[in-house]
């Protein structure tokens, strides 16, 4: 007869900033909320201006729109949960909620990096081959490269999540140090 001692992990508790004094939680959460508000307002402003102003419908500004969108979604994935921890005492996140947040953090980080690579290519061609720039870098080319920048991380994250789902959450050990 075999006995095993296993703990099933259903939730994680978000610590926030360990060592933060209780009297500082209000100002810190207000600062995080202001940062989030500026992220949302600034990135929506960039996307709106570029989409409404016809003279900005150029490859570099299309890249700016993709960067603004990834930044907007990235901030929306991370900041509301930590703000709700300080404002409403909602420090619990479910196991699957944690995996979902992890998926989007890694996916958006990878997407942001790929889009920055597209921006580097755009600037490289503009500096090193300025006479060929209009022929090589068009709105269609940038749209295709940015689309690839969104789809490559999806495939990468699907493989990673498939492997992570094989983990038995009863044997999960979290060692932070």
Round the Cα radius of gyration to an integer and report it: 21 Å
What fraction of the residues are assigned to beta strands by DSSP?
under 5%
* Tally of contiguous helical segments: 5
Based on Cα principal axes, name the global outline: flat
**Approximate helicity band:** over 70%
CATH architecture: Up-down Bundle
What's the arrangement of secondary structure elements?
Layout: E1 11-13, H1 22-52, H2 59-88, E2 92-94, H3 95-128, H4 133-136, H5 139-165
Antiparallel strand pairs: 1-2
Structural overview:
A two-stranded antiparallel sheet has the order 1-2. The chain has 5 helices and 2 strands; from the N terminus they run E-H-H-E-H-H-H. By secondary structure, the protein is mainly alpha-helical. The C terminus is likely disordered. It starts with 10 loop residues before the first strand and ends in a 12-residue tail after the last helix. Helix content is 71%, strand content 3%. The longest helix is centred in the middle third of the chain and has 34 residues.
What are its keywords?
177 residues; mainly alpha; Rhopdopsin 7-helix transmembrane proteins; two-stranded antiparallel sheet
Tell me briefly what this model is.
The chain is 71% helix and 3% strand.
